[in-house]
Amino acid sequence: MHPLYEQMETSVFERMSLAAAKHGAVNLGQGFPDFGWPDEILKAAANAVVVGSNQYAPSRGLPALRAAVAEHYGRHHGLDLAADHVCVTSGATEALAAAILATVEPGDEVILLTPAYDAYAPLIRRAGGIAREVALQPPDWRIERAALEAAVTQKTRALVFNNPHNPTGRLFDAEELSAIAEIAVAHDLVVIADEVWEHVLLDGKSFVPIASLPGMEQRTLKCGSAGKIFSLTGWKIGWVVSSPEMASLAARAHQFLTFASAPNLQAAVAFGMAEGDAWLQPMRDRFASARNRMMEGLEAVGYAVLPSASTYFLCVDLAASGIELDDEAFAKLAVEQAGVAAVPLSPFADQDKPRHMIRLCFAKRDDTIDAGVAALAKAR
Ligand code: PMP
Ligand code: GLN
C-alpha cells in the first residue's frame, strides 16, 4: 500500500460507531445528538423535496443560503459580509478539504494544535503539505505562545485553528486568540479556522471568531457547519466564509470535490438561518444540563472528568481515574465487554499522543446518558 494511504486510516469515529453497532453498545463515541433538532426545519426540508428543486444547485450554493450565512455571521461577528464571501460545501469536512486545497502547496508546512480533529493531517498530506504538530497539554490544553512561535519556519504557510476545540471542549481565551492572530500576521500565515462549534456554548460565555481580530479578516478561511447549528449532523451542509478572493479559491476546489450540495437541504438551512436565533439558547441549556448529568454520573462512579465549555464532548483522564489500560485498550474493552462506545484520544495526534484520555459525547437524552454511565461503571 502507498505510504500516504497507510497514514489515512479508517476514522476513529467510523471505527467506534461500527463497533457500537456490532456489539449493541450505547454509542457515546461519534459526536451526534439523539434529541433536540428544530421540527420546523425538518418540515422545510420535506417541503423543499416535494415542491422545491431536486436538481443540481449552483456550485457555490443557493443564493438564499449564501445570503443567510453572510447575514448570520455579519450579525454575530460584527463583520461586513455579503454572499460573495461564502461558498456552500457538503459539511465542514468538505469546507476543510476545499480550504486546504486552496491554500497548501507541496512542501508547505501547516501547524496543527494537537489533539487535533482527525481530518486535518490526512488532507494536508494529500495536498503535499507537512503537518507540524504543537501539542496542547492536559488538563488545561492551553495554547502557549512560545511553543506556537517555535513551530513556525520559513516554509510555514498556514495554521489550522479549531475553536471551540474538538476533542477537549475548550473555548480558547482572549490571550490565546491574540497569540494565534499576532503570529499569523507576523509570519503572513493563512488561518484555516474550524469554528463549527461556535454556537454550542455551555456556560454563558461568548465566542470570538478569529477573523474579527486585527489583521485577520483577509487571511482567515472560516469553516462552518449547519449540522452543528441545528443538531442535524447527517445533513452535511457547511460553508467556507472568507474574503471574496479566498472564498473563490476554495470554490474552485469545491467544484471538483462535490461540485454542489443537496439543494433541498440548503433551502431548509437557509430557512432556519433566516428564522433568527431563538433556538440557540434552549439548545445550549439542554446540552449544558446533559453535560452536567454525564459529568456527575461519571464522577459518582470514580472517573476523573475534565471540564468542557463547548462541543458535544467531555474527556475522561483514565490514569487519574486509577485505570492502567491505555485509551485504545480501554475503548476496546468498553465497547466489547461493557456495552458502551467511547473515542480514544491517541488518533488525534501523530507525535505526542494523549494515551490516557477518552472522549465521550454527552449530547444525548437522559436515558442514553444513564445507560452509558452505568456501562462505564462496569468497565472499571
Ligand atoms: N470539524 C470539527 C472540529 C468537527 O467536530 C466536525 C464534526 N464533528 C467537523 C469539522 C465536520 O463537520 P461536518 O459534519 O459538517 O462535515
Ligand atoms: N465530528 C464528529 C465527531 O467529532 C464526527 C464526524 C465524523 O464521523 N466524521 O465525533
TrEMBL record:
<keyword id="KW-0032">Aminotransferase</keyword>
<dbReference type="InterPro" id="IPR015424">
    <property type="entry name" value="PyrdxlP-dep_Trfase"/>
</dbReference>
<comment type="similarity">
    <text>Belongs to the class-I pyridoxal-phosphate-dependent aminotransferase family.</text>
</comment>
<dbReference type="InterPro" id="IPR015421">
    <property type="entry name" value="PyrdxlP-dep_Trfase_major"/>
</dbReference>
<comment type="subunit">
    <text>Homodimer.</text>
</comment>
<dbReference type="InterPro" id="IPR051326">
    <property type="entry name" value="Kynurenine-oxoglutarate_AT"/>
</dbReference>
<dbReference type="GO" id="GO:0005737">
    <property type="term" value="C:cytoplasm"/>
</dbReference>
<protein>
    <recommendedName>
        <fullName>aspartate transaminase</fullName>
        <ecNumber>2.6.1.1</ecNumber>
    </recommendedName>
</protein>
<dbReference type="InterPro" id="IPR015422">
    <property type="entry name" value="PyrdxlP-dep_Trfase_small"/>
</dbReference>
<dbReference type="GO" id="GO:0004069">
    <property type="term" value="F:L-aspartate:2-oxoglutarate aminotransferase activity"/>
</dbReference>
<feature type="domain" description="Aminotransferase class I/classII large">
    <location>
        <begin position="26"/>
        <end position="375"/>
    </location>
</feature>
<keyword id="KW-0808">Transferase</keyword>
<dbReference type="GO" id="GO:0030170">
    <property type="term" value="F:pyridoxal phosphate binding"/>
</dbReference>
<dbReference type="Pfam" id="PF00155">
    <property type="entry name" value="Aminotran_1_2"/>
</dbReference>
<dbReference type="GO" id="GO:0016212">
    <property type="term" value="F:kynurenine-oxoglutarate transaminase activity"/>
</dbReference>
<dbReference type="InterPro" id="IPR004839">
    <property type="entry name" value="Aminotransferase_I/II_large"/>
</dbReference>
<keyword id="KW-0663">Pyridoxal phosphate</keyword>
